[in-house]
Specification:
This protein is 28% helix and 41% strand. It is α+β, with helices and mostly antiparallel strands and 158 residues long. It has a single domain, classed as START domain (Alpha-D-Glucose-1,6-Bisphosphate, Chain A, domain 4, 2-Layer Sandwich), CATH 3.30.530.20. It comes from Vigna angularis var. angularis.
């Protein structure tokens, strides 16, 4: 049985790729106010939410439990609208080595947008399951943030 793996989910969204990428790269703290399974986040280390040397502390619901973890940005590729994060700390460290989370904002040929989350993991023990709970969490976040972006667009046109 392999201790390493990669899992992913991709969901279509209604908001544009540019608006999604903006939220993820310039307005990440806003996610805690619109995603129901995120209970809070704060800047744990560093001066800016969106630099590679900053560390954020997240509190969220995962597999029915309130947990916390730390997150840092490994890289941002503006061209491909891809961000790579590292997740570590309480919710991660007892089961996995730091998780590598890649978020891709995909603008399809037909003009539609989708968000793809990929988690690369290495389990600490064979009895640990892959981190499927994160895929469910990210599905909820995608839906909540997409609804928020669309609502803000509607409010802006009133």
């Amino acid at each position: 049985m392999s201790l390493t793996g990669k899992i992913s989910t991709e969901l279509p969204v209604h908001a544009t790729a540019d608006k999604w990428f903006h939220i993820l790269t310039k307005n990440l703290p806003q996610v805690q106010h619109v995603a129901g399974k995120i209970h809070g986040t704060k800047l744990h280390q560093g001066d800016d939410w969106h630099t590679n040397d900053s560390v954020k502390h997240w509190t969220y619901t995962l597999d029915g439990k309130t947990v916390t973890c730390l997150e840092s940005i490994e890289s941002v590729d503006e061209q491909s609208k891809t961000i790579v994060f590292k997740l570590f700390g309480e919710a991660v460290d007892d089961k996995y080595k730091p998780l590598k989370l890649t978020i891709e904002v995909i603008e399809n040929d037909d003009g539609r947008t989708s968000i793809k989350w990929t988690i690369e993991y290495e389990k600490l023990r064979e009895d640990v399951h892959p981190p499927y709970g994160y895929l469910e969490l990210y599905d909820h976040i995608i839906k909540d943030v997409d609804a928020h972006i669309l609502e803000a667009e509607r409010d802006a046109t009133k």
